[in-house]
Amino acid sequence: MKKIHTLGFGLLLLSACQYLPQQSQEQPAGLNKFTDPQLQQIYTLQDERRTADLLPFLQHGKHTYRQEAALAFASVQDTLAIPQLLSLLTDTSTIVRSAAAYAIGQIGHKKSENALLHQIEHETRPQVQAEMLEALGKIATPVGVDFLANFNPRTPEAMAGQAWGLYRAGSRQQFSPKSLALGAELLAEKNPFEARLGAAHFLARSPKADLTPYRQQLITTATSDPEAEVRMAAAQALGKVRAIDKGRFLSGIAQSDPDYRVRLSAIRSMTGLEYDEIKTALLAGLQDKNINTAVATSEFLQANPQGVNVTDLQQVLPKLQDARVRANVIWVILKNSPARDFLSERYKTYFQNATNPYDKAQFLKALSGNYNNYTYIANAMFAAKEPVIATTGMDALLLMRTQPDFPKAMEADFAAIFKKAVGSGDVALVGMGAGAIRDPKLNLRSYYNDYSFLAQAQQKLQLPRDMETNIELQRTIDFLNNKESVTPANPFTHPIDWALVATIPTNQQVELQTEKGLIVLELFVEDAPGSVANFVELTKKNFFDGLFFHRVVPNFVAQGGDKRGDGWGSSEYSIRSEFAPLHYREGFVGMASAGKDTESNQWFITHSPAPHLDGRYTIFAKVVEGMDVVHQLKIGDKINYVRLKAPNL
């Protein structure tokens, strides 16, 4: 399995139009670049979000410091820096111009658009021009979109930058018929890999775009592009094509592509099709040799249960071994079967007899396919000793409550359950209950005489540990009081440990031994020193040993690092977000968060490119060995240990 790209040209292009993790060109006497006290100061100012003290470094006589200061503002994201960053677009140093363009895109203010438009035309270095084109996409108005659609790239790097600029604009719902047509043209196999990948993601992730005119190019790309990462995005884009034979060509991809990520992308694109059209592909998907495809197929059925034949599912159920897949299938059976009450009693025994808490949680959620099970689920949720069972129980109730045919007679009971959850003291139930109460589609406001129970729950939180729950509560309080919500600021409590950073070499590797096999990571200390130091500190304390992968989203991420084991656990402190000009590709490792500057101990590994995470979640490592293991991970898989690997002598 490729780590990033195996083709020489693709790797060359990656290094040209995207930044690779920093490796000091002039290696100082120490193990990394932070033996330079000036660099340490710049990163400390970034960590402390001190704009006024960072600004002078943008005018420093040494180009390295100008570059690092510009990159610091990609994390600080203060608009006060825009005028000086715009002036750096004409800096004599290539690396400074690239860093300034990246920071401008990260700040994301449209007032930078005209300056970028002007400078793109005059930029002579392909890699800098590519960075500027992508930055333009992050701030583009229709004027910028028109520029991207009409731009004539003269180098492969510029073409890739144009494609990623289209993607960045499209993800902000900024696209036009001409830009969509260009995206389809860029899919042609003659174009560089980076351009095809950016174009495929642009078409796949631009909301509400009608891609019917580009059906043939998308089918060609999804079935014949040499790179699976391009095929999977093209298969995802096919979901936006209207065609009477859509079920046929998507079923063909789902049953024939050698890469599981392409197969499950095709299945996800089948939304809106009749069950009988895609039945064969779905039943095959449930039994796919890769667990991620099986899970994704079962989730598709749960999200699209209309017309699904119960007998088909009952026949395939005994062949399914994974609890998550079985549970999702059971949910659909209960949803569609007239004998749901009778079958519920049988399936309750699955929950009662399961010994693994992750399996138990899935079988509890399965019962939510029958509305009459809500009291059973609520009782199990409040009685659960394992957090993952309680949290999944709340997931089950929310799934019930958000169904379009939810019985009105049960609304008051569910409102009472959500209020009880807010008062439970469990951070997950509190946060999820508050989120449900705030959901305007559920219209729960009228069921509460006063909202003091929310403020009381908020007073019991411990910050910054419970910041995610605090944010949910504050948003709900503001919503109920008809106030515009402002996200509570996270206190700055954990500065970078520079003494520890000084001990970490630029090529430091980490062994992550799981029950499925060994995964080896390489840390990016020069791009994310605070995050890497935090990870190393926790590793030395054996913090991660014995924990579980509590979240696995097929063809997206495998996430771990949570002591609670349900995704709601945090540390007694938080660290800052660190956004370097890196891109999430297969096997990159990022810090999980509840928003900017809320990271602590949870992290994730990507299954495939995830460009929507770029610049929003800190990248601090990548997988250099064991990617095949990552692709086999499922919820509940154990992390036996995490250890720093001795450096090669």
Describe it:
The chain is α+β, with helices and mostly antiparallel strands. 51% of the residues lie in helices and 6% in strands. An 8-stranded antiparallel sheet has the order 3-4-6-5-7-2-1-8. The two termini are 28 Å apart.
Q: How would a textbook summarize the main sheet?
A: 8 strands, antiparallel
Give the CA-based shape: globular
Given the structure, what is the number of helices?
31
Arithmetic mean of pLDDT? 95
Helix content: 40-55%
Q: Unreliable segments (pLDDT under 50, ≥5 consecutive)?
A: 1-17, 24-28
* Strand order in the sheet with the most strands: 3-4-6-5-7-2-1-8
Structural class by secondary-structure content:
alpha+beta
> Proportion of β residues?
5-15%
The first-to-last residue Cα distance is 28 Å
Radius of gyration (CA) equals: 25 Å
Number of E-state strands:
8
Helices and strands in order, then pairings?
Layout: H1 8-17, H2 37-48, H3 51-54, H4 63-76, H5 82-87, H6 94-107, H7 113-122, H8 126-139, H9 142-150, H10 156-170, H11 177-186, H12 193-205, H13 215-224, H14 228-237, H15 246-256, H16 260-268, H17 275-286, H18 291-303, H19 310-316, H20 323-336, H21 340-353, H22 357-366, H23 374-383, H24 387-401, H25 411-422, H26 427-438, H27 452-459, H28 467-480, H29 498-501, E1 509-514, E2 517-523, H30 529-540, E3 551-553, E4 557-560, E5 588-591, E6 603-606, E7 619-625, H31 627-630, E8 639-644
Antiparallel strand pairs: 1-2, 1-8, 2-7, 3-4, 4-6, 5-6, 5-7
Helix pairs in contact: 2-4, 4-6, 6-8, 7-8, 8-10, 9-11, 10-12, 11-12, 12-14, 13-14, 14-16, 15-16, 15-17, 16-18, 17-18, 18-20, 19-20, 20-21, 20-22, 21-22, 22-24, 23-24, 24-26, 25-26, 26-28, 27-28
